[in-house]
Request: fold
Amino acid sequence: MKIPPLFFNTTRDCFGMEEKDETCDPDHGCALAAKSAACGADALLLVTPYYNKTSQAGLVAHFTAMAEAGGIPVVAFDVNCAAEYTAMADGLLLTGGMSDIHAGNYGQIYKDHMGGPNHPLNELRDDMDFTLLRAFMAAGKPVFGIGRGLQVVNVVQGGSLYMDLPEETGQDHEKENHTVVAEPDSFVCAYGTGEQVVSRHHQGMKSLGRDLKICAKSPDGLPEAIEHISLPVFAVQWHPEQSQTEADKKLFERLVTLCKGGDR
Reply:
């Protein structure tokens, strides 16, 4: 098996370009991965890239959360190496981000309110996320989706999205965070029926994909957490890497546990 290209440095984008935010330590990703390995972590976790230089600092939060949960995070680089990544890694983390998923992926026609400076379309990222998710699911390996990652899981399973919540439903989930109502026996039960989460997005789940179940909703009824009924695949619309509450930390620990063969 050939060795696929990887990044341990969270402040470089997937094309190897320097991140301009000097507040980020250029060696932070390497240090976290090395620290995880030195502490006995043995779950290698593939992390999807942002494809956006201005958002690379967000990867630091994902790396930190995964390392603290006992994983060794590395960033994917080349979509053509999906088979090698899947064979090499124990699990996949689908990161969030500002870019919209192109509507063609769920059978809809592009509209003017998609994309733009705040939510740019990025078909390179769509290709990476969709290809890796399908490969890991086919291999039966654990996947955790965050934010946009939840939407990727739903679309890959044949579900659809609201392209713009304010226009299509009147719901505004982009300006401020909100609480969630979790199913009592679900993987997000620790959030209860009123815990605040970091969840800001202008798109959301419309129709549920096949073999998925809804595990939490926002107070106004929008799905905020889903899980596959038989595969170790789960996702949340909010960003646990940012708030890092005890309930948030359990999500990353769950991915590591699944990677080590633990029960769902």
About this structure: The longest strand covers residues 71-76. Residues 9-38 have pLDDT under 50 and may be disordered. The helical segments are 28-38, 57-68, 82-88, 123-138, 148-156, 165-168, 240-243, 246-259.
